[in-house]
């Protein structure tokens, strides 16, 4: 393609072809006073002056550092080690495009491969793709996979009402023109709907059943009967999961999940005003050719060295052309690389330690509330406790915000409090006092079942990089 400007002769030929004499004639219909209005702009600033002015504007905003954050629901204030944050500064990563040429993209491909390996270990699934845009779009793609698995003969999707409401809204928007019937998430209130209540909606027209683990209120349910009923009907079941929680308790793959999706933000992704975040997507082998995006695989090059290539992208535009049903392209490759670095830096022991510490704080908080006579919406939970406060939710949240701690209001009767490793003992004591409870003591675990740690992230890469020097050498 030539980028040589048009010559005067060429411009005159084009003007003559459309019946005008000059370029200005093209704008004749625009009143002259509007063509070149005099803008009332201030005097230009130097770089230093512009920086100071923008800083003054920015300081008018409140930011995450001004508050202790307890809202959760997919956006957590987990600490990001400097070595992990360094990934954002590497030009090889932050300019990452789809690595069509593996011979010059081995670093990016390996990082994505390790990300996929980490996800398969966390979820208990066979394969994971290189990322989606966020957790909500990952769930929407799970619906697509289920529809295609039934060759679009099944059009019903059962949604648990305790799935994040934003996720359910996005899924409906994605599939509003596909004739999909969504059932299960209307009628009863969130906390009064159990997994077994969804079984009555499952029939031979059901393509997918979707649940959240832990759910929007932070509770963990027993899905065993629902999984059995789903598979008996020939449908697929999808778990929307918190990846940090999966470091501690049984992965969805062991519970019978066919697809596992979720928000990867807890894995070293900054809050960043709500995004960009990272959608993860993992499946059993039999559905791997129906997923969107790309899968990176490991191979041996002609010199016998370990190498990485894009193994599958079965629905993408660059492969399927006019028959494509996806064009995810690069998706969230930079954030997937950050999540991989986060997992490599911490390893399985570090992830479990973070998850266990977070859960211990939540369990102590819950014990203090129940000892004071307050009612929780669920018996089992990971990092989020939802408490019933009988019409006082807004007032309690306002008092907490005035004290520098942000809680999540579910409705007028319920509040959720989500913990992370940045939550301090002072925070815990203040929150207990906010609800009129006593000081938090030790508490028993509120997890229904822990995972088998013997087969969790066993690859050497998750055990070899425990210093900043080793980590920087690995990233090079």
Supply the number of structural domains: 2
Query: What is the residue-averaged pLDDT?
Result: 89
List the strand order in the largest sheet. 2-8-7-6-5-3-4
Distance between the termini: 36 Å
| SS elements, strand count | 15
Taken in chain order, the helices and strands follow as HHHEHHHEHEHEEHEEEEEHHEEHEEEHH
Shape: globular
| Residue windows where pLDDT falls under 50 for at least 5 positions | none
Q: At the fourth CATH level, what is the homologous superfamily of the largest domain?
A: Type I PLP-dependent aspartate aminotransferase-like (Major domain)
Number of helices: 14
Give the C-alpha Rg: 26 Å
Helix content: 25-40%
Largest sheet: 7 strands, mixed
Using the 3D structure, state the CATH architecture of the largest domain. 3-Layer(aba) Sandwich
- Given helix and strand content, the structural type is alpha/beta
- Beta-strand portion reads 5-15%
CATH topology group of the largest domain? Aspartate Aminotransferase, domain 2
At the first level of CATH, the class of the largest domain is Alpha Beta
């Amino acid at each position: 393609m030539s980028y040589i400007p048009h010559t005067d002769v060429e411009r005159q030929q084009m003007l003559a072809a459309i019946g005008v004499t000059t370029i200005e004639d093209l704008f004749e219909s625009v009143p002259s006073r509007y063509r070149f209005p005099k803008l009332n702009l201030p005097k230009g600033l130097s770089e230093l002056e512009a920086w100071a002015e923008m800083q003054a504007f920015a300081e008018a905003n409140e930011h995450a550092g001004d508050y202790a954050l307890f809202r959760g629901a997919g956006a957590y204030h987990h600490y990001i080690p400097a070595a992990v944050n360094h990934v954002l500064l590497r030009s090889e990563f932050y300019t990452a495009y789809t690595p069509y040429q593996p011979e010059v993209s081995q670093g990016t491909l390996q990082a994505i491969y390790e990300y996929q390996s980490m996800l398969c270990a966390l979820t208990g699934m066979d394969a994971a793709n290189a990322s989606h845009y966020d957790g909500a779009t990952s769930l929407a793609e799970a619906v697509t996979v289920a529809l295609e698995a039934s060759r679009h003969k099944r059009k019903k999707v059962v949604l648990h009402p305790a799935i994040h409401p934003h996720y359910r809204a996005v899924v409906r928007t994605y599939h509003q023109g596909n004739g999909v019937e969504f059932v299960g998430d209307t009628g009863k209130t969130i906390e009064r709907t159990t997994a077994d209540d969804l079984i009555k909606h499952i029939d031979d027209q059901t393509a997918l059943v979707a649940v959240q683990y832990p759910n929007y209120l932070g509770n963990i349910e027993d899905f065993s009967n629902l999984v059995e009923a789903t598979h008996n009907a020939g449908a697929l079941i999808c778990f929307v999961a918190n990846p940090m929680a999966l470091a501690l308790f049984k992965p969805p793959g062991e519970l019978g999940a066919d697809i596992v999706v979720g928000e990867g933000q807890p894995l070293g992704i900054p809050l960043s005003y709500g995004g960009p975040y990272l959608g993860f997507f993992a499946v059993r082998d039999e559905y791997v050719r129906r997923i969107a995006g790309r899968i990176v695989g490991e191979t041996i090059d002609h010199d016998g060295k370990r190498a990485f290539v894009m193994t599958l992208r079965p629905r993408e535009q660059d492969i399927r052309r006019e028959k494509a049903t996806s064009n995810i392209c690069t998706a969230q490759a930079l954030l997937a690389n950050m999540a991989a670095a986060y997992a490599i830096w911490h390893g399985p022991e570090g992830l479990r330690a973070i998850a266990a510490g977070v859960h211990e704080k939540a369990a102590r908080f819950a014990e203090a509330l129940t000892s004071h006579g307050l009612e929780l919406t669920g018996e089992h939970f990971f990092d989020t406790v939802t408490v019933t406060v009988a019409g006082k939710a807004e007032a309690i949240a306002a008092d907490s915000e005035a004290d520098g701690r942000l809680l999540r209001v579910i409705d007028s009767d319920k509040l959720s409090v989500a913990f992370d490793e940045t939550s301090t003992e002072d925070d815990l004591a203040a929150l207990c006092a906010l609800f009129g409870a006593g000081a938090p003591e030790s508490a028993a675990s509120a997890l229904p079942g822990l995972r088998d740690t013997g087969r969790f992230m066993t690859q050497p890469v998750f055990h070899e990089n425990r210093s900043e020097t080793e980590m920087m050498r690995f990233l090079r």
